[in-house]
Amino acid sequence: VKLRQGVVKPSQADKPAKAPPSLKPIPLELGDSLRDIGDPELRTVLESLARSLGDNETSNQEQDPT
Fold this sequence. Notes:
It is built from one helix and no strands.
């Protein structure tokens, strides 16, 4: 660990930062889910979250059928 006091010139990067990879479409063979979730507690929480989001979406559509 080096501690420097006073004005410190920032080091220059050797190479410019790479752009993040672009998102690709999900292959059809993955089906409805990307993969099985191994942790049963996490699976339960995510299923509950998905159900509540689905319920909110359907209730919003029922209130404002445009």
